[in-house]
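SEQUENCE-TO-STRUCTURE ENTRY
===========================
What this section holds: a protein sequence and its matching fold, both as plain text.
Tokens: labelled as protein backbone structure tokens, with as many entries as the chain has residues.
Question of interest: how does this chain fold, as expressed in backbone structure tokens?
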Amino acid sequence: MAHRLRDQLLASPGISRALTAAEMLAFGRSVDPTQVELAEYRQFCAERYARNTVFRNDYFELVVICWQPNQASSIHDHGRSHCLYVVVEGEMQEEMFAINSAGRPRRTAARSYRAGQITIAGPAEVHRIANHASSHLVTVHLYSPPLDDAVTNFTPVPTYKTADSSSA
């Protein structure tokens, strides 16, 4: 099914230009999480969330991100890209931030999304995604244009030591 999502995007204007926010939202609304087969991309990492790229071209990037319990992203923006999130499994928490005059993030809001829900972040929006639940979180992310070095991370990506990784 991940390849069907890719093929759907390749049949859209995303084959020749960056997608608009409205086009991305329309794509997100078309995804039925009960029908998404992501076995090939459902790979988790104990140290941090796992980005599993389905497809990338000059105009969009489609990624499946797998989150273990209590994993989170950095506080970041998306540079020049919009980012659509489709929650496939679990519950996603999104925290929104404003950047103060010292260049430090200050939390302004938080919201939760369950399987089947979508949201989109604009290029200038600063946020953090987290899985505060005790079960896995799987999200499909569509970036258009693809992420590049214009992304700003205001905090490092959290990493987690496990009993297995600390004894190696």
Remarks:
- The chain is about 15% helix and 35% strand.
- The first helix runs from residue 2 to 10.
- Residues 2-146 form a domain with the Jelly Rolls fold (CATH 2.60.120.10).
